[in-house]
Amino acid sequence: MGGQFVEWYDRLVNGTYQTTVGDRGRLVIPAELRDRAGLTEGTALTLVETAGGLVVLTRPQLRALVLADLAGLDLVGELLAERRVEAAAEGVE
Length: 93
Hints:
Order of helices and strands: HHEEHH
Number of strands: 2
Strand content: 5-15%
Strand order of the largest sheet: 1-2
Number of helices: 4
Structural class: alpha+beta
Radius of gyration: 22 Å
Distance between the termini: 66 Å
Number of domains: 2
Largest sheet: 2 strands, antiparallel
Shape: elongated
């Protein structure tokens, strides 16, 4: 195996843990991983289904991801521009 595989493994797979879905769909997160991630009993998690598989995020992680995706967007400006175009098409000013 070449160096490229090792780079991929270290970047994407390092820290991989095996677990099994238990009764009633329960998923056990290994203690070492819970400790490093700061997960305690009652921590709310969000499962996101992606083309590449499931991603587990805490609410702060999900919020940060959404804010990063929205950064630099002017949603209000875009909505107003769309409404102006629609109004102009209808002959309304």
